[in-house]
Amino acid sequence: MDEKILLIAIKNDDPEAFRKIFQRYSKKLYYFAYRFLKDQTEAEEVVQEVFIRIWNSRKMLNENLSFNSYLFTTGKNFIFNINRSKIHHQSFIEFVKPFILETENSTEEAIISNDLERHIKQAIDLMPPQRKLIFKKSREEGLTYPQIASQLKISKKTVESQIRLAIKWLKSHIE
User: Is the pTM of this model over 0.90?
Assistant: First the structure.
């Protein structure tokens, strides 16, 4: 079927048309994402998230514009978000690593390590509720910023801001 006809059908809530578009583009999008992420699971996540976004915003699809460009631009944005999340996660690990590396397997060192872990948990518990929830979803559940934003029905910028504030909070409480 012609792409324009499929997009019109999708706008009219046709799941079969959506399935055809998915079949037509999902492998291309997967390989595109995999080329940047080098991780099968993350590439599959990009495909899933992009097509979920397309279905959820189907009423706003413009059948007169290039769907291919829209699809890959949306995919590129998800890839950037995943990489940004990795950078934030890595910076947190790099911050905490010296505290953890200083400890050895002795009983005294184990106590210190447990105290540090407890101190980190207490600092997290003192965060405002939304910041704590966002931080835990990011660090403990491993969700990406767009996933968190979608789950909590807030903007991605709010998620980014809250994570940045949470890391700043932890640094000040751990030091």
Answer: no
